[in-house]
Write a structure and sequence with these properties.
Length: 442
């Protein structure tokens, strides 16, 4: 693998005598790693990721699309270095009430946040590109935690929410130097000019969303690149121009992680993962406007309370069930006002937990609740299918369940919900979302 001459020159200056080690590491295939959901006890390998309790390295990269457990949200395929976010959440904002993942697609850090934050926390996951936001929503729905909002906004759109967020995570779009061995296209697109453009864009992103972070709130800034312009120099700029202080992270004995003057670096020749930079800052500048603790229900908006037609939720006292535009949703009661605020000010693609939709007098259950951790599975009829039937279901092909009751059935694989069918006796209507279906031949 050959790198641009300018990249080699700049990175030699950065690493000095260590550069040949990095170059050798970048010629080797990257490791494959996954992070496991807490839906079930599941350990895909014996080698864990040192800085993430739920992270594992795989001996080889399987065809994930052919695994029903992947579609059930049992694990997420995520680069190991970026899993270090778990340590930061645990050390600095485990009990944060409202957190924003600003550049969230396809969902690695958002699924990690939704699992590591307190159960009652509200996570807002944003993606500016609409097609990628749909993928983000799908991955978060499959992860199964209910207190999530997926938005499709520009960073500047969040400025109106003054002091609303306790923490903001920005995995900033970058020049991608740390992903060279994983993405040959990143090598072709790299240039010194692009580094300069990325650094400027990152400053614009942070400054646009800065007012939405409360004073004393935590900002996590990360990139998957090596150069100082997009990393340490930008963090220094945030401290000086916007008002913040850099926080130290307890590395939990992971001495191969390199501490720099404004953050922490993961080098492929030292840690088992891709190139990564991360920094944690506390906002010190004053934030005057605050949207918290206000009533944000839209004028004329009518949330009609209703009942769930044929299944139950765990801890039913926690949830308020509403009908909005024929969709039945569940919101956590204590977070309802925050959901309403976000629905009012942002382009929310997914908000609360969609339980189903009313079509005339018929209730059609949603795949979202089938995958959710708050569905009481004892309240519905489960049909645990074999591998071949699970794949047919995930392809949205027809399946036949002659020995099961008629009506809506929860299709499961190894005890985990995949989605719904309506059993008519001689056939089943497959209700798996069309846009999620497996398209490849397995």
């Amino acid at each position: 693998m050959n790198f641009p001459e300018a990249f080699e020159r700049r990175t030699r200056v950065l690493l000095g005598d260590e550069y040949p080690e990095l170059d050798r590491a970048l010629q080797i295939s990257p490791p494959t790693s996954v992070r496991v959901n807490d839906k079930i006890a599941y350990q895909p390998s014996s080698e864990g990721v040192a800085w993430c309790n739920s992270g594992y390295y795989l001996d080889e990269r399987p065809l994930f699309t052919a695994d029903p457990l992947f579609h059930a949200g049992v694990y997420y395929v995520q680069e190991a270095s970026s899993m270090f976010l778990e340590q930061i959440v645990k050390q600095y904002f485990p009990m944060a009430e409202i957190v924003l993942d600003l550049c969230a697609a396809p969902g690695g850090k958002s699924t990690l946040l939704s699992q590591t934050l307190a159960e009652s926390s509200l996570l807002v996951s944003n993606e500016i590109i609409r097609s990628r936001a749909y993928v983000l929503a799908e991955n978060l729905i499959k992860w199964g935690n209910p207190n999530v909002v997926v938005t499709n906004n520009e960073p500047k759109d969040f400025a109106v929410l003054g002091g609303f967020f306790d923490a903001i995570v920005i995995d900033a779009p970058c020049s991608g130097e740390g992903m060279f061995r994983k993405d040959a296209g990143a090598i072709e697109e790299w240039s010194e000019y692009n580094v300069t453009l990325c650094a400027a864009r990152q400053k614009e992103i942070v400054s646009s969303v800065w007012d939405a972070l409360k004073t004393e709130g935590v900002l996590v800034y990360s990139t998957c690149t090596f150069n100082r312009e997009e990393n340490e120099e930008n963090v220094q700029w945030i401290c000086t121009e916007l008002g913040a202080e850099v926080l130290s992270i307890d590395l939990q004995g992971n001495s191969d992680i390199t501490k720099s003057d404004f953050g922490y670096r993961f080098y492929p020749h030292k840690t088992k993962g891709e190139g990564f930079f991360i920094s944690v800052l506390r906002k010190t500048s004053n934030q005057i406007q605050s949207f918290k603790n206000k009533n944000h229900e839209k004028k004329g908006q009518k949330l009609t309370k209703t009942e769930v037609p044929f299944f139950s939720l765990t801890e039913p006292e926690r949830w308020i069930i509403t009908t909005e535009n024929n969709q039945i949703r569940a919101y956590e009661k204590d977070k309802l006002n925050d959901f309403l605020l976000l629905n009012k000010h942002l382009r929310c693609m997914y908000s609360g937990l969609v339980l189903g939709e009313m079509k005339g007098k018929d209730f059609i259950p949603s795949a979202n609740i089938a995958l959710s951790k708050i569905l009481d599975k004892n309240s519905v009829e489960n049909v645990d299918v074999d591998y071949e039937t699970a794949i047919r279901f995930l392809r949205k092909d027809a399946i036949l369940l002659t020995d099961s009751s008629r009506g809506y059935l929860l299709i499961c694989y190894k005890g985990l919900g995949l989605g719904w069918v309506k059993n008519l006796g001689n056939r089943c209507n497959n209700l798996y979302p069309y846009e999620w279906r497996i398209r490849m031949k397995i």
